[in-house]
Amino acid sequence: xxxxxxxxxxxxxxxxxxxxxxxxxxxxxxxxxxxxxxxxxxxxxxxxxxxxxxxxxxxxxxxxxxxxxxxxxxxxxxxxxxxxxxxxxxxxxxxxxxxxxxxxxxxxxxxxxxxxxxxxxxxxxxxxxxxxxxxxxxxxxxxxxxxxxxxxxxxxxxxxxxxxxxxxxxxxxxxxxxxxxxxxxxxxxxxxxxxxxxxxxxxxxxxxxxxxxxxxxxxxxxxxxxxxxxxxxxxxxxxxxxxxxxxxxxxxxxxxxxxxxxxxxxxxxxxxxxxxxxxxxxxxxxxxxxxxxxxxxxxxxxxxxxxxxxxxxxxxxxxxxxxxxxxxxxxxxxxxxxxxxxxxxxxxx
Length: 349
Prior knowledge:
Elements: H1 3-29, H2 42-47, H3 51-76, H4 83-113, H5 119-132, H6 134-149, E1 157-160, E2 163-170, E3 174-180, E4 189-197, H7 200-203, E5 206-208, E6 215-224, H8 230-244, H9 246-257, E7 274-279, E8 284-293, H10 297-313, H11 331-348
Antiparallel strand pairs: 1-2, 1-5, 2-3, 3-4, 6-8, 7-8
């Protein structure tokens, strides 16, 4: 079944459930008589309060939101570029609607139970509910922080709770990510969905890769032997970076500067390829720093590695450093080997 057909079927299902619920309510109240069923009465409906009002209200709200979702999408399709942003706006509307409905439900329950519970009973029940619902309440608090501060939205790439992914759903309880990276190389999608409780927003860090711009900085480390011409190695790395990312970085640095919180940041950000040196245990470590689109970071890194490898292989004065074991004989062993060589030469004569 296609996605559009499934959405229509789901909308019809909830409309049908709402209609059946209303018909049942009229039958129980006595306003509608169905042959073969006993006659309802207002007194019987009154005995079911407050649930006789709460359940139809919740079902009708769900049906209304399911029906309005495609209407909302069609209305904003010409004004909002990305579909993810459309659904993000609809989610905010749905949250407001649900908050209003839950508030009404709470008022109905308080009104229906005021004669049955005293002050101490109400306080005890409230304390018990808070204790049992502390994790859901913390999730709700995280969602409020998320919405009020705009930490991320649908369609953003984020990292939270040691998981990186593309935000595909946000609810008051949790955030759903389509995971990338993880078990795979680079930033490839893994095909897995990750559900993270919103409480992690107030417990840990949230990294947003695409909040202001689609660009992120990356670093590629190239290990060069101490015996190599290191200045030539640096030149070759610069040439590879210029061919792969240089033009792209210069084309977009003005756009990046417009997003800096302070003008001084332009003096510290790498807006062109830069190579830093470091002394390693068995190599000179050259760190190439550059920025690229977050959605293509793995592709740019692969192209850079290929280009640097080709240039190093074509230049004998530059060699990659790699872990290996080299046997260095002692002076005594060298003297013994020299003596054996002389004896073999004497025998040969």
